[in-house]
Amino acid sequence: MVTTTLAAILGIAIVGGALRSAVRTLVVPRAVADRPARLLFVALRALFGLRLRRLDDYASRDRLMAAFAPLGLLLMLPMWLTLVLAGFACLFWAAGVRPIARATVLLGSSLFTLGFER
Q: Cα separation of 75 and 3, whole Å?
């Protein structure tokens, strides 16, 4: 009972955080600090930093960094979808769909409308 309640609360928090992040990033017309977006861009910057260490001329570094922001923006949609998937999987599990893998498959079929689940 307590476990399912905690899973439901966690699921609501994850889904709410993902939706809040999407709205703050796409709708709000001014700069607003957003933790999921920040974590994504910090992780992406660390990956770019690994490649930047091997480049020694400015033109190559500039060419690589020109792809940083567009790639970060493109990766935000899969990040939000993954968060929503994880949050709703917790909610489905709390509602009685067992095991968690079954809840995830059921939700994936609903979220992406692939139609592989009956």
A: 32
